[in-house]
Amino acid sequence: MKTKLRFKIIAALISLSLAGLLFSQGYWLKGLYDSTSQQVNENIQDAMRMADYKELFIRMDFLSDQKVETDVNAKIILSNDSTQEAQKTGIMDSFAVKADKNPFQYEDAAESLSEYLDLLTTLEGQIQQAMHHKLDLIMPVDYAVYDNLLTDELKQRNIFVPYKLEIIEVSDSLRTTAMSFLSDSLDVSKSWQNAAQFSYAITTQTQPRVYYQLSIRTTTQLVFRQMAGILISSLLLVVLILIAFVHLLYTILRQKTVEELKTDFTNNMTHELKTPISVAYAANDVLLNYDNNASEKQKKYLKIVREQLTHLSGLVEQILTLSVENRSTFRLKQEGIQISTLIPSLIEQHKLKAGKPISITTDIPETLAVFADRTHFYNMLGNLIDNAVKYSGDKPVEISIKAEKHSNEILLSVSDNGIGISEANLQQIFDKFYRVPSGNLHNVKGYGLGLYYVKDMMSKHGGSVTVKSQPGKGTTFTLHFKN
Hints:
Blueprint: H1 3-66, H2 69-89, H3 91-101, H4 106-109, H5 113-138, H6 143-156, E1 163-171, E2 174-182, E3 196-203, E4 209-216, H7 220-226, H8 228-290, H9 296-325, E5 334-338, H10 339-353, E6 358-363, E7 369-373, H11 374-390, E8 397-405, E9 409-416, H12 423-426, H13 450-460, E10 464-470, E11 474-482
Parallel strand pairs: 6-8
Antiparallel strand pairs: 1-2, 1-4, 3-4, 5-7, 8-9, 9-11, 10-11
Helix pairs in contact: 1-5, 1-6, 1-7, 1-8, 2-5, 8-9, 10-11, 11-13
């Protein structure tokens, strides 16, 4: 895969992951905002309800302390009428009858827990309305006290915002504001037109109907204040992820640049090396073959130089091949290759340059052919045979080349009787520049590119390469070509 394409895919995947994370985080925060907003509204309503309760109890305590006879009568009337009001609605009787049947079974009093709670809430409201109906006749509501109580109740629920409290009277279609309070006198000049409004009834059974109306300029501030910890932590998390994302892209771009520089350096260096190698090889060949005055010792050293130049030339060609096949313009020139016709020349070539006796046997059907690039197919087989010779150890080299056809693939294996490879190293031998560790001994020359080249080229052919080995017994490499 090309480096630019790989970088684009990585960047796209990271961007999609980041977008997905931000979307899920936003969706979760939106749900949290809605639930917190609902909780804030419920807290405000509850504060208005509790302030009204406390205002009622304060008046009742005041009347009780006065020990007025009329107050005693009023309490009796209040108690009787409260029960009568509840009975008129049918709720008290229904609830009492059901509760008497089975006081421990909530489902007998209401079909569900929600209905049961609604029933209690309704009953509570009926009783509170009845208390207002009778108590307000004896002693009017102290709205200033209610305002102070409401302020305390709001503070207990962490609601610290300016508000406007109005007492609204509604008679038929006429709506009037009987009284109003501001929690902050400095807000008197500010508009409350678009404020959030909350209502709580005082009396609904007599005319005019009276209720409290609480105006808060906005509840958004309250919601965000209660979500402050989560919002800050979420923001920090997003910022951290963005920083990591930018750093990752920067690192990838930097590595991409280093990779390009390394590739350019390799290409330029190998091309530059080819000229002096060719000149040195030609000069060595002249001295070795056309200088009649050279002594046997000189010829011996010239032959060593020629061998090393040949080895160096082959290494440069291999590096160039790897460099070329990584370019975007690289294309395989695949054709049908009859394996049996290609093997003999490879065998002769390696017998000549092995420098020690080797035995190579083949088991290849005459008509068996693979669809591959001839040059690269030849190089892959050459690398496998060369490795078998290099890692034969001190014993005579025995190599077996076998090919067979299966239903969906053609297998070509190269086996040897060499030193083998340990299990720990088998997974890494196809890595670029990897060589099996041998301590401080460097008796086998190479740069760890041969097997990497074989694996890479088999991948480009749509096939694969596998290896089996036992230390001390030998190794078998198998090329898997698609049939």
